[in-house]
Design brief:
alpha/beta; Rossmann fold; two-stranded antiparallel ribbon; 9 strands; binds adenosine monophosphate
Length: about 180
C-alpha cells in the first residue's frame, strides 16, 4: 500500500515549497524543492520522514534520480549505511550501463545506471523529488529489474496524482510527503 506521510501534522511542508507558474514553459506549475533545501527545518523534516517511513522495510540499496533525487537520497543512505546508485541521463555515467528510454510529452528521454553496482536479488528503494506521470520511476524500475534486482517501493517528496503516476507505475507502492491535486 502506498503511503502519504502524515506523522508530524505540526509541520507545514507546503509553506516550504516554492511554486513557480509557467516554468519551464507556459502552462506548467513548477514545484521547486530548492526552497526546502534552503530551509534547514524543512529539509530535516523530509529526511526524518523518510527514515520513519522505511524503518521497518528491508532495503538493500537506493536508486536516486537525477538530479534533485540525489539530494534527498544521499543523507538517507549515509544515515542508514546503504549503497546509493545514481540514475542519470544518457552519456553521464562512465562505466558499463543499463539503459531505458521512455516517452515524454514531446520526444523521448533515456536514463542509465551503472550495471555492475546493481546486485542481483537486492531490494531497491527509488527516490526522486517529484513524481508526475511516473515515466521516470517506471524506467528506473525496469532497469533495476533487468539486472535481476527488485524495486520494492518508490519515494518522492511531492506527488501529482492528477497525472496518474499510480496507474502508470504498476506493482510498486509510491510514498509521498505531500500531494497536489490541481492543475
Ligand atoms: P515524471 O516522469 O512525469 O513522473 O516526471 C518526474 C520528473 O520530472 C521529476 O524528476 C521532477 O523533478 C520533474 N518534474 C515534472 N513535473 C514537474 C513539476 N510540475 N514541478 C517540478 N518538477 C517536475
Amino acid at each position: 500500500m502506498s503511503k502519504i506521510y502524515r506523522e508530524d501534522e505540526g509541520f507545514n511542508l507546503d509553506d516550504a515549497i516554492r511554486k513557480v507558474p509557467d516554468f519551464p514553459k507556459p502552462g506548467i506549475l513548477f514545484y521547486d524543492i530548492t526552497s526546502i533545501l534552503a530551509d534547514p527545518d524543512a529539509f530535516s523534516y523530509c529526511i526524518e520522514a523518510m527514515l520513519k517511513l522505511y524503518r521497518n522495510e528491508k532495503i538493500d540499496a537506493v536508486a536516486a534520480i537525477e538530479s534533485r533525487g540525489f539530494v534527498f537520497a544521499a543523507p538517507f543512505c549515509h544515515k542508514l549505511g546503504l549503497p546509493l546508485l545514481l540514475v542519470r541521463k544518457k552519456g553521464k555515467l562512465p562505466g558499463k550501463t543499463v539503459e531505458r528510454s521512455y516517452d515524454l510529452e514531446y520526444g523521448t528521454a533515456t536514463l542509465e545506471m551503472h550495471k555492475d553496482d546493481i546486485v542481483p536479488s537486492s531490494q531497491f528503494l527509488i527516490v526522486d523529488d517529484l513524481i508526475a506521470t511516473g515515466g521516470t520511476i517506471n524506467a528506473t524500475k525496469a532497469m533495476i529489474e533487468s539486472c535481476g534486482a527488485k524495486a520494492i517501493r518508490a519515494f518522492s517528496v511531492i506527488g501529482l496524482p492528477f497525472l496518474h503516476f499510480r496507474e502508470t507505475v504498476e506493482d510498486l507502492p509510491i510514498d509521498t510527503l505531500i500531494e497536489y491535486f490541481g492543475e
